[in-house]
């Protein structure tokens, strides 16, 4: 039966092509294409082949493959775009870093005039730079500051070298320029007058009132001295020295309270450092590695409290702590 259909189809194809080839070439071409397809199907069916089915099924698979490729391309495009966005965002974040944030810093508690201030400062800043920051917080000029942390804070060393840690309390003592000008009798005037008087006098250690103490000789338990050097105040009291009456005396510098404690066997006198008008010092003849020092507790020389056999390396530190570096001495 399929053979008969094939013969009839051939006869029809020849007739149509003969009639329309000259008048309708396009129609003849369309019919030829349709004929070839039908002929292929008939022959494949006759032979029992499945090539036609496979061919017709291949096209949807091909279309499906093209669709998957399109989806894959779209996914890759989105991934690439997201990666670019992430890179841009990371770049933006990296470029926004502040160089100062990379410095190691330390949190400090600044205490001045019964006020407390929080300060965060790079640990590699020097004592002088810390004073500048304190100035911005308090209005107290650096030259008029006494900054204390386990003694008077050195200006030329970094906070790291001084071993200042997080949460450390920094004590600041000093008066603003207005406060200094408001004082009736400025300390610097008294000190200049005392210095002028001292220049006119014979050495203190030769005066009778001092000779009676010095002639007793150097105390056995006096602290060792180092001539020609300057050291910060020790963390322990200065002891083993004599006072004007020849009794043993010790000096304790209470920096947190801004007080000087003068202790004897009988009692301990707590003197505010701000009330000390002047500090006078002189080497002891024959023992130049030791000094005699007087703390002027009132407006005249009659209020001077004398201490003998003070180790030379601590004399400047004592003056700095009591009067401050901005004073004249």
Automatic annotation (TrEMBL):
GO function term, MF aspect, one: RNA binding
Residues annotated as domain Ubiquitin-like: 104-173
Region Disordered, residue ranges: 62-99
Annotated CDD domains: Ubl_UBFD1
PROSITE patterns reported in the protein's UniProt record: UBIQUITIN_1, UBIQUITIN_2
Matches recorded under InterPro entries: UBFD1, UBFD1_C, Ubiquitin-like_dom, Ubiquitin-like_domsf, Ubiquitin_CS
Compositional bias ranges of the Polar residues kind: 84-95
UniProt-listed Pfam families: PH_UBFD1_C (PF25343), ubiquitin (PF00240)
Compositionally biased spans, kind Basic and acidic residues: 62-83
Name of the protein in question: Ubiquitin domain-containing protein UBFD1-like isoform X1
Biological source species: Cottoperca gobio
């Amino acid at each position: 039966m399929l053979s008969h259909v094939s013969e009839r189809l051939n006869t029809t194809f020849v007739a149509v092509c003969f009639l329309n080839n000259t008048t309708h070439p396009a129609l003849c071409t369309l019919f030829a294409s349709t004929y070839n397809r039908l002929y292929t199907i008939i022959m494949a069916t006759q032979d029992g082949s499945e090539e036609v089915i496979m061919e017709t099924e291949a096209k949807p698979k091909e279309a499906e493959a093209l669709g998957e490729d399109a989806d894959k391309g779209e996914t890759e495009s989105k991934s690439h775009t997201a990666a670019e966005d992430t890179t841009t965002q990371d770049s933006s974040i990296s470029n926004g870093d502040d160089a100062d944030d990379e410095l190691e810093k330390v949190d400090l508690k600044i205490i001045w005039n019964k006020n407390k201030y929080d300060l965060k400062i790079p640990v590699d800043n020097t004592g002088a730079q810390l004073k500048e920051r304190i100035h911005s917080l308090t209005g107290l000029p650096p030259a008029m500051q006494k900054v204390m942390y386990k003694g008077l804070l050195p200006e030329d060393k970094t906070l790291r070298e001084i071993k200042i840690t997080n949460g450390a309390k920094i004590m600041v003592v000093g008066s603003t320029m207005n406060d200094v000008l408001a004082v009736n009798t400025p300390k610097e005037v008294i000190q200049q007058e005392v210095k002028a008087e001292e220049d006119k006098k014979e050495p203190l250690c030769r005066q009778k009132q001092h000779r009676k103490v010095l002639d007793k000789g150097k105390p056995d338990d006096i602290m060792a001295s180092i001539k020609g050097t300057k050291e910060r105040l020790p963390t322990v009291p200065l002891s083993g020295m004599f006072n004007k009456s020849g009794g043993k005396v010790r000096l304790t510098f209470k920096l947190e309270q801004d007080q000087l404690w003068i202790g004897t066997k009988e009692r301990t006198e707590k003197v505010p450092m701000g009330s000390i008008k002047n500090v006078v010092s002189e080497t002891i003849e024959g023992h130049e590695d030791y000094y005699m020092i007087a703390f002027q507790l009132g407006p005249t020389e009659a209020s001077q409290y004398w201490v003998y056999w003070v180790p030379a390396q601590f004399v400047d530190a004592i003056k700095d702590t009591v009067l401050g570096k901005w004073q004249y001495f």
